[in-house]
Structures are given as structure tokens and as C-alpha cells.
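quick one, 181 residues, struct below
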Amino acid sequence: MAANEQHYTLALPDFDRPVKLLIVVAPYYKDIADELVAGAKATVEAVGGTWDLVEVPGALEVPTAISIADKMSNFDGYVALGCVIRGETTHYETVCNDSSRALALMGLQGLCIGNGILTVENREQAVVRAEAKGQNKGGGAAAAALHLVALSRKWANPEKNVGFHSDAIRLAGTPEGRDKA
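---
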């Protein structure tokens, strides 16, 4: 049984400047979500970081909220939390696959996201994984986001501006791109 296995866990990273994470939770199963959030908050605070918390209706909305926050705010990273319990229909596969895929795609674009959306067969599995004093998957998701933030800061290159370069625009008729008025 997985609950009895021992897993290696990286030590939390150290930061020379504050870290701010957004915790996005789908509290569809409120008691489980509350445990996930408690674990995530404690992990962020353990490195001296701060967090904001927002709730969304379900696991499918978690990636959208993170995408909106990334475009409109200044978070260093994100923690995605929620729980999807298998039911009688294929909706379970859709929610699990689509939420996970969206988070992974944003991660590949450079967002620092820890995925703590539980995908389980039954409530008992969810409770075991969510408990902050147990498997603490919320804390694990926060730790993953923190490790990615640490890597992004380590590899940050001020010489490499990934954003828009205004000097790349050339005005018609001016070789240097400047108006010779």
C-alpha cells in the first residue's frame, strides 16, 4: 500500500528575498480542501514566504484562475489544490486529465506550479493524502512550487529579456528604427 512506502523528500529551498505564492483551491470536498490548504500554508510559511488564497468552483477552474493571476498579478508561483473522486461516469477522467494537462502546459511555459489536485478512487484515499499530519499532499504541492521558484531565480538571466523588445521594431523608412524628425 502506498501509504506505508517511504519517499525521499527534498529539503525546502532557502530564499534571499521573499516568495509570494497564490494558492488556488477548489473546495468541492471542503474538509479535504481545508486539509490541503493547511499543509500548503504551513510549507510556504516554513520558508518565510507569503501566500494569498482564492477559491474556484471546481478542479477545471484551477488552471484558469492561475492563468488569469499570472497575467494580472505578481506572484512568484502557484499551488493548485482540489480533489476529484471517481464517480459512475467518465466525467472523472475529463476533469483529471484536463486540469492536469492545463497545469502542465502552463508549467512548460515557465510558470512555477505545484499540482496538489488529488485524483482518487474514494473518499478514504483522499483523506489519507490530504491530512496535513499525514501524507500532506497540499504541503508537497507548495514545496514543488517553491522548488521551481528557487530554480527560476537561480537561472534568471538579466541579460536575457524574454519579454517584448521595443528596439526590435523598425519604423518604415528609418534603418535604425528612430524617426529622424
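The CA atoms of residues 85 and 120 lie 5 Å apart.
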